[in-house]
Fold:
Amino acid sequence: MNFPDILAKKVRPELNHIYTEPPKWTSTGLDCGWYCREHALHLYALASIMRRPAEICLGDYILRSPNNDTFHSVGDESGHAWCRIEDCELVDVSMTVKYIYPDIQNVDLVYKNRPDLAKQFTIESHANMPDDQFMKLANSNSRLIAYNERERLSPAPSELLSNPFEFLHRPPPGSPTFLEIFGADVFYAITYHCFRLITEEIRPLYLHRDPTSTVHQIMKYNPNAKDVIEHLLLQGQEGYSV
Structure:
């Protein structure tokens, strides 16, 4: 199984189960419930463990389906996050349409080099396009997922996993963070769990556990995730490839 298919079949469903929520309106507009930065954090760290050169990309998206509302992040200071991995400039494991367009078959994965994984959507990627020009894409008569990259980040993976809120948005005041709920190494544990889904014959948890118990189980099964990931990052995965 190649890397895009592995992400689509093994990694994305587990991450979506943990992080994705139904959309809700906030003071800054519609929150699609994708937790795109959390998805990008794990994908970037996972790619780094597997010795696949990666960067985190920040920018905006447009999600368009004819005869339905168009959704976008233009003007929202939170923007959107995805990854660039090896020769693929666009890999987004957070994008899902299951709540927004429930009558349309969901995408398996947004992976620019594999348009077949996005089902009936056309995928476009741009860089530093002016907002007004980018928003013209919303007038398309096709089902479209478009991205407009503004910035790339290449943090040290171990620093990102140890200090995730240097990159992630913090929850509203009074709400606990993931670290406070599940423990300081939770982002290491989820990343390592995804790595094990790829490299071992372990069962995914999304089929039979709710999101909270999924994370608790991941923490239970991966108590040494930080040490293992730091070792993998130092040593690399000699001879391992997918």
In short: The mean pLDDT is 93.
